[in-house]
Structure formats: structure tokens, C-alpha cells
């Protein structure tokens, strides 16, 4: 993840943050990683943008 940040590989960051969200036990942590993934997805018009938005809305994190 650090290398992807360093290289500004935003598409890879979307995927890495989504994966990180799957590997934590607390909902707050999961939401944090999903928000990060969504933010980067918006920046690069990633194919997961709509999915991430819907997921965050269903969790009450995004309106």
C-alpha cells in the first residue's frame, strides 16, 4: 500500500483499500478503508466507484 501511495497508483489503491476493508474486524475500520477506496475511485473514475458509493450509503456513511 505504501508503494502504491508513493507511486500515486490510485487504481491500485482502490483495490488495496477494498481488500484492507475485508481484513479488519471492526465496522469503523472497515468503513474507514471503504471511504479511502471510494475517495481514490472518484479521482480516477474507477469501475468500483458506484459499488463503493452504494455500499457506503447502505452503511449510513455516505448520503
Description of the molecule:
The chain has helices at 2-6, 10-22, 27-44, 49-58. It has 63 residues and is mainly alpha-helical. It has one domain (2-58). The mean pLDDT is 97.
Task: Produce the secondary structure layout.
Blueprint: H1 2-6, H2 10-22, H3 27-44, H4 49-58
Topology, number of strands: 0
Alpha carbon gyration radius? 11 Å
Order of helices and strands: HHHH
Shape: globular
Largest sheet: none
Mean pLDDT: 97
Share of helical residues: over 70%
End-to-end C-alpha gap: 28 Å
* Low-pLDDT segments, ≥5 res: none
Number of domains: 1
Number of helices: 4
Structural class: mainly alpha
What's the short story on this structure?
With 63 residues, this protein is mostly helical. It is 73% helix and 0% strand.
